[in-house]
Input
Amino acid sequence: MNAAVQPTVVLAGLFAREFAEMALPWQAEEVPNPRLLVLNEPLATELGLDPASLQSSEGLRLLIGTLVPSGATPVAQAYAGHQFGGYSPRLGDGRALLLGEVTDADGHLRDVHLKGSGRTPFARGGDGLAAVGPMLREYVVSEAMHVLGIPTTRSLAVTATGRSVRRETVLPGAVLTRVASSHLRVGSFQYAAATGDINLLRRLADHAINRHYPSLAEAERPYVALFQAVVTAQASLVAKWMLIGFVHGVMNTDNMTISGETIDYGPCAFMEAFDPATVYSSIDEGGRYSYRNQPVVAEWNLARLAEALLPLFQDDQEQAIALAVESLGSFRHHYSAAWSAGMKAKLGLPVGLASEVVSPVVDELLTLLQEIHVDSTSFFRSLSGAARGNAGPVRGLFLDLAAFDAWLKRWDALHPDADVMDRVNPVYIPRNHLVEEALTAATEGDLDPFKRLLDAVRTPYEERPGLERYAAPAPENFGAYRTFCGT
Output
């Protein structure tokens, strides 16, 4: 570690200055022994930060929030949210801080944010800390999502604190340094609306437009246009989740961004055996956030955003509701279009092929996958081999060969393009048993399994010799997989 190189970071306090009603100035807790576990050097460079300086003693203090650059004001953001359908009017960053904003190499403003930096007044009895395992989970899964082309927050670093964290057992603590287009959420607007201060709500909406959708500022109804833009962004995002088999696990309204980025990788996982009822969160007993429910929940969350924005849509409430209903009604169209286009690509089918031709092929396939619980990632990647004349590997995934061969014949008659398929169907995803293996080892001080997994998922479409275990489903003795929120 180079202690001689000092970090030079220009962090703006834009949100802290403009939204004092929703930003509580706070300081990250000092930690006894900060130690860098992983640094995202390409992302640091993209943000205009020197990776070497971030590895210095002063750089580590910056990454955990105990060194605050001049001009920055770390704040815990206030927001509300529906959690598993129940409304909480005051959630906020209980163990997180927004350090400020940095301008990246493309001139875009990006938030620099901490998770696990200590208790804030929003902690509600929590200890404000985070453990090494969950923070490394967010790092590897968010990086995988990024290279898979799915909008996401990014992980800049995970730093061990030298402090113990009590959960079911005593675990080593860590702080995640996260980067996002912003941390504006549906819950941010719910909070602003609940204050009854329409000026605050309007300022927040203007901020969201300027930050994420600047072309909408001149729209006839800019706030309706903002809502429509978020509807479109979220429809596209959730379709991408569904196409890759990603299960978020905790789609509360405080975990849905205005930018359309995936945020908060707590009880998340990638589905292996295809089953629409798949649930990974240990607390989701009713399956509210199951794989198949994600589009429905996204639409429900957007309805809550519409409710918060109603005062800005139109003075007359009935007209405002009509505008909201009309705009929300486009979600299913946008989602269906994104899903259909994505599924065509996964199956290598021509873009212009009529939906009445494609839909029966897709529906029959999904039924087959569900009936036999075929590993979805392995299936789609192997299917391109069949398009090249080698159907053996993909046929080996099925027990009912007659049914699959009949489907295969109908699909092959549509002249699939294997190269297109290989560009969108990954070989490597963060498979659940490998994630757990890596996190367990890291918790015990061995980062090598984590680094090997990260290396595999960072080039997901390129099959490489020696990485066969990273492409294989979990062994049978792995059992049912459950994840936890980490608090």
